[in-house]
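STRUCTURE REQUEST FORM
Protein name: Solute carrier family 2, facilitated glucose transporter member 5
Source organism: Takifugu rubripes
Requested output: structure tokens
Priority: standard
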Amino acid sequence: MDEKETWGKPVERRGRLTAVLALATLISAFGSSFQYGYNVAVINSPAPFMQQFYNTTYVERYGQPMEENFLTLLWSLSVSMYPLGGFFGSLMVAPLVNKLGRKGTLLFNNVFSIVPAVMMGVSEIAKSYEIVIVARFIVGICAGLSSNVVPMYLGELAPKNLRGALGIIPQLFITIGILCAQVLGIRHILGNSTGWTLMLGLTGIPAVLELLLLPFFPESPRYMLIQRGDEETAQRALQRLRGWEDVEEELSEMRLEDQSEKAEGRLSVLNLLSQPSLRWQLVSIVVMNMGQQLSGVNAIYYYADSIYASAGVKQNDIQYVTVGTGAVNVFMTIAAVFIVEASGRRLLLLIGFGICCTACVLLTAALSLQNSVFWMPYISIICVIIYVVGHAIGPSPIPYVVTTEMFRQSARPAAFMVAGSVHWLSNFTVGLVFPFMERGLGPYSFIIFSIICLLTLVYIWLVVPETKSKTFLEICQMFASRNNVEIKLGNRPVCSEERGELG
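Status: completed
Returned output:
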């Protein structure tokens, strides 16, 4: 890179959404991210019929009904095995993406979807509730891998001016998966005693489509050049993705990143934790992923049915209101795709956590006064919708985008492994702890969530910089002064003007 390019910042060619890039994005997001969302919500609606199946199976085996406590334990396992599997899937991210590549890992990951889909589909015929519980763990592994690998893959395929928008697509497909599960879970469709096994088994269809179609699309050019040293394949992949022949500028930027990383080598999680140059990036992704899950989003969904019931929504109509809430989630995530490059990542995070914090405080007040003020239940419903809107534009999608952007090639797999582990452990913790919080604190549980939202917001305001339209190396330079290190470009250190300023 010559002096003019480094200091003058000439007008550069902006990447565009080519057919190859668009199709690779849609296929990987539908084949992997969609399943994450689908399996989050798929057992909510048919829960009574699945529990009835558990009890009937037990009676056929042992000649007596299952004790209520044992049924509760089995159902808790059916629910919690999914985030537990997600945690173990996250631990597999770094070794798999380094060995198989990003696309290769997504193709391999379909094993963890197709096998449990078949298991859940035949569970009633096999008269085994154990199959359902084991299958939920295996499909959780699939979700743990896909939730980390898809954003990494798309972040490395995308030109920097589209990286934010394409980075939100996986979260969009997660919300679409949740909505599809809610729609299919309507009693008249599949959320009934005869349709629930088919509903659980449908998760294998996106996996089969991905397995058939994704091989025709490129592997990450950054992976091929920086980690595999295959510049020719990286160049061909870039030419297909960008839709033009001259990709030398991007290749030069990758070579520069490769040179600056040569001394570090590929980082394991332990290396990552001990790297001074990555200290604040690592703290930031831990805080954002904890904030995302501990902000109460799963508790809001858990509480939603009782809020709707108390507002006078008929029991049979609650499922339709829930679908409406899911549709709002999808719509707002679509909005985030279109505004993230204009507004930036940091602003969306601040606004999103701010809305969630306010909604939790108002929801606490509304739930507390619900029985004494006749119109207060409707305020509760509005608070739930406002919370969903806030979470959908910032806390839900942006941490994945920022995790991709804050780390260079050698550190990114280990970073996603840490971020994913924190994400799924926090998810598991909320699922485990919230029922006890609800029993002990009632509506005041949401004050705790509002405090977590506020603390996350303050951290982002003080520490997290804006990363839109920056190269991966430029973002590392932005953190250099806070980490008190020098990042080298080739053989020369980066000066303070090149580092930029932290937000």
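Reviewer notes: The mean pLDDT is 84. The beta strands are 488-489, 492-493.
Form closed.
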